[in-house]
Amino acid sequence: MTTSTLPRNDRKKPLNWRRIGAWALVAVALAVTIAPFLWMLRTALSSNSALASNAGNLLPADFSWGAFKRVLGLQTTEEAIADGGSGAAINFWLYLRNSVIFATITTAGQVFFSAMAAYAFARLRWPGRNKVFAVFLTTMMVPPIFTALPNFLMIKNLGLLNTMAGMSLPFLFMTPFAIFFLRQFFLSMSREVEEAAMLDGAKHLRIFFQIVLPNAAAPIATLALLTFIGQWNEYFWPLLVGQDESVRVLTVGLSVFKSQSPQGALDWSGLMAGTLVAALPIFLLFIAFGKKVVNSIGFSGIK
Amino acid sequence: MTTLTKQPGNASGRSGSHNGRKPQPAKRSMTSRLGDLRIALFFIFPAVIGFVAFFLIPTIRGIYLSFTEYSILGEPTWIGVDNYTAIFADELFWNAMGVTLQYVGLNIGFQTVIALGLALLMHRVAKSTFVRGALLLPFLVANVIVALLWFWMLDYQLGIVNEVMSWVGLPRVAFFGSEQWAIPTIAFVNVWRHMGYTALLIFAGLQSIPNHLYEVANLDGASPARTFWSVTMPLLRPVLVLVLVVTVIGSFQVFDTVAVTTNGGPVNASRVIQMYIYQKAFGESDFGYASALSVILFVILALVAFVQMKFLKGNESDLD
């Protein structure tokens, strides 16, 4: 990540104090954005029972790894209660595993099947193609809550409540956005290689796998990254169909964890440790691929 | 939801009618009317399953259910427009609409102004990927996590915000716990999460404004303020309209933040429309009524998008 501070359109050097003021505002915005995450860490590393008497202390209150041990199920119930936890069984390892499975399956399916459809919309000629594409696009307008109720009924009728299949199915096949996003890239790809392969007698399937997909690796990776983050953060649908502990994902697990605590005596350090565990994969992805994510929002809205 | 894109061959990204048809070489044997239909069917087959099973049928079924009384057990009973007439007489519905509108107003107002300011700052002084990345970070973290983080920081007794406020002599505020503050607080939390993302969208729009226009304005001796209102804003308008459509539609569907913090309370103070739908369907097992509510939400969102595009002329650029 490089820093370039010389905007091209600054032809007349502006007054220096104005520049300083602008940077001060940027610094404030950065502080407002980052500080809460540090507070999250500070709280997670505190003992819950010490928080009350150190509410304004910027360092962890009575430093301890107890909160992390607690949410990862490494503390006995007695230890947890002594440490200010609720004592209720909580197992973020399990939720972490479920989140990984859920986000990975849905991302893989959605991106792959959407890429197939995008190929048909961008590179093949068939009657009604643009009409079908337009119909697909209109579904972008349908608010998720609207389809969520009937989808819930269908998943329930299929007997798939509280299964990974029931949680994944609605996300597995496509989203209009993914098809739209990839179609744009497929349209802009050069036809020459494809035609040469066609002359050699290559079939569409081979062209798709050996030419189109590798050439679009970068946008596909970006889409997969954005989809994975979105699925990792999904709350509403898993809340409807995945309440059971065996398939509970981190977002739902966190809200259950919060509601299990007695009113007014929340296990704050445990809760913050839980949110850190849940956010950690996103932070890691962000450190590894942040530039890709930032640049993809150049002009293509995530949602 | 709606998409802005800078990929070639598509300037508006909304019409859906632009075709990417390119001249095909005559050499290809597919000159018949059906073209690649067979292989195309193979390629779109999974997507069609997803579309039909999880978008089309649910949409039709949702509309049908809105005319029925249905409690999950047994079969839906057709009751005509009874749900709708009941909704229009339902005080809780009007309360939910009012609460939602208050949220949307606060959220969009602050978010757009702050994001525009951040975008201008990024454009003028801080183009670095690091700054943009850092500002985007809250958007990448789940709603639930952001909500819980602020629920802690804004806690009445132990929250750092109230702690700091009492240091400087301000009275403590029950941010999530008072009827008066619940919705402004939830709006604030989501502004915090979304401002960087929205700023990036606007920033991209700013970058697409040709430099020579600024140079001309500068040669004509226009003040920065004049340049902003006469060059930047008119050219940014299409982007701003799209950003507004996306953010308004998104904020009408606020749920996660409410669900993990106030759960609609205190009393009815933060029961937004999607929360009301959720409670009707899954709390009271009244799927017919909940479906009718979501049809109404759907219609409102479609109208909002239509009105914004129509009156703000979001699909026309001033750049010609």
Q: Which features does this protein show?
A:
heterodimer; A: 303 residues; mainly alpha; globular; disordered C terminus; B: 320 residues; two-stranded antiparallel sheet; 12 helices; disordered N terminus
Quick overview:
Chain A has 15 helices and no strands.
Task: Write the SSE topology.
The complex is a heterodimer of chains A (303) and B (320).
Chain A: H1 16-44, H2 48-51, H3 66-71, H4 77-82, H5 92-123, H6 129-138, H7 144-157, H8 164-172, H9 176-188, H10 192-199, H11 204-215, H12 217-233, H13 236-241, H14 250-260, H15 268-296
Chain B: H1 37-65, E1 68-71, E2 73-78, H2 82-88, H3 91-124, H4 129-140, H5 143-153, H6 160-167, H7 179-207, H8 211-219, H9 224-252, H10 256-261, H11 273-283, H12 287-311
Antiparallel strand pairs in B: 1-2
Helix pairs in contact in B: 3-7, 3-9, 4-7, 5-7, 7-9, 9-12, 11-12
Q: In words, what does this structure look like?
A:
The complex is a heterodimer of chains A (303) and B (320). Chain A has 303 residues and is mostly helical. Helices cover 68% and strands 0% of the residues of chain A. Chain A has 15 helices and no strands. Chain A has helices at residues 16-44, 48-51, 66-71, 77-82, 92-123, 129-138, 144-157, 164-172, 176-188, 192-199, 204-215, 217-233, 236-241, 250-260, 268-296. In chain A, helix 5 packs parallel to helix 8 (164-172) and helix 12 runs antiparallel to helix 15. Chain A is globular, with a radius of gyration of 24 Å. The two termini of chain A are 25 Å apart. In chain A, 47% of the residues are buried. Chain B has 320 residues and is mainly alpha-helical. In chain B, 66% of the residues lie in helices and 3% in strands. Chain B has a two-stranded antiparallel sheet. The model of chain B is unreliable at 1-30 (pLDDT under 50). In chain B, helix 3 (91-124) packs parallel to helix 7 (179-207) and helix 5 packs across helix 7 (179-207). At the A-B interface, helix 1, helix 5, helix 6, helix 7 and helix 8 of A face helix 1, helix 3, helix 4, helix 5 and helix 6 of B.
